[in-house]
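Quick one, probably user error.
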């Protein structure tokens, strides 16, 4: 989807058409565009929605409202992961539950899966199976579905009443309640894209006031998270490494050896570097790390940035094996292969001649 945004207080500043979700590489440029209209802040709802283009149609209720750009981006990311049936549930539940505003819609994305929506009454067996899955968190063992009388389950649902007819289908709420996961400022944890490390920022003594960072990310996202926590520096927060695709040894440098809240930018830069590695390069990085054993976060980052200066040779576990490798792979072996029996490979880290 995309939204046309403007400054409600100064319409003469113009308007901007922003596609959502906003790609990581586009984020700062979109903020710069909004900043020219003096909107796009992390806290104040200063983005006036003049128009929403493309689906989902239920979001038309937001036209004429003020939101933050991050709220709209978060909602778009949540909806981007929905399949057609989940989207029908979301839109139908928004009508049946009377959800209005960006906060309600964000929270609804976490509970709309519980409702049952019927868009086609031609297959009662399928309706019954879907309803049974909706009541059980969306996942049921296949053998249970085999023994389920979907036709009878659908009839009981339909004859039981309690439905709400919406433009998106007939909705049965199944006792769903709208959660209050989003409080209007701090966003619930959600992994939209794969990340190499996620960090929880909290305020000392206030663990419920938290922000999530998903690395790698733009530096502006770190700054905006701090603004929502009403602090200026990461050192004012408690930083905890939540999940990581990086080895425990690497994480230990950032968490055990040094305060993580003082090295968020370094960790972010490290994950940005590692994200460019393929599987072999990432394995080589961890091998070099275990060999060199850098002591500071900055040294870990330097190691990743200069990995091309290292050569990782697999299947070598002793000085003798390393000596064999150096000699046999050398293109400048003086005297040819006839001297190999005269070479000792086992002393120290380098081969020496027994002459």
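Nope, works fine. Designed sequence:
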């Amino acid at each position: 989807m995309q939204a046309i945004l403007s400054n409600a207080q100064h319409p003469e500043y113009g308007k901007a058409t922003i596609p959502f979700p906003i790609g990581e590489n586009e984020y700062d440029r979109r903020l710069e565009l909004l900043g020219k209209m003096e909107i796009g802040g992390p806290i104040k709802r200063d983005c006036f929605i003049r128009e929403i283009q493309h689906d989902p149609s239920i979001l038309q209720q937001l036209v004429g409202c003020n939101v933050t750009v991050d709220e709209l981006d978060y909602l778009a990311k949540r909806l981007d992961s929905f399949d057609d049936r989940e989207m029908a549930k979301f839109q139908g539940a928004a009508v049946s539950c009377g959800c209005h505003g960006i906060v309600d819609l964000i929270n609804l994305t976490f509970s709309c899966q519980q409702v049952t929506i019927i868009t086609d009454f031609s297959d009662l067996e399928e309706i019954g199976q879907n309803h049974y899955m909706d009541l059980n968190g969306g996942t049921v063992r296949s053998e249970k579905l085999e023994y389920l009388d979907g036709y009878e389950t659908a009839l009981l649902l339909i004859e039981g009443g309690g439905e709400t007819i919406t433009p998106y289908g007939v909705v049965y709420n199944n006792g769903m309640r709208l959660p209050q996961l989003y409080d209007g400022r701090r966003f619930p944890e959600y992994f939209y894209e794969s990340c190499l490390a996620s960090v929880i920022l909290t305020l000392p003594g206030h663990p419920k006031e938290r922000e999530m960072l998903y690395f790698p990310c733009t530096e502006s996202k770190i700054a905006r998270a701090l603004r929502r926590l009403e602090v200026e520096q990461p050192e004012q927060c408690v930083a905890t490494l939540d999940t990581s695709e990086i080895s425990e040894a690497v994480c230990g440098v950032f968490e055990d050896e040094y305060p993580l809240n003082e090295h968020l930018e370094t960790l972010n830069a490290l994950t940005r570097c590692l994200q460019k590695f393929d599987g072999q390069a990432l394995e080589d990085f961890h091998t070099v790390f275990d060999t060199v054993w850098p002591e500071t976060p900055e040294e870990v980052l330097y190691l990743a940035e200069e990995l091309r200066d290292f050569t990782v040779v697999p299947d070598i576990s002793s000085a003798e094996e390393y000596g064999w490798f150096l000699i046999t792979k050398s293109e400048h072996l003086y005297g040819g292969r006839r001297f190999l029996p005269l070479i000792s490979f086992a002393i120290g880290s380098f081969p020496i001649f027994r002459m």
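The two ends are 76 Å apart (CA to CA).
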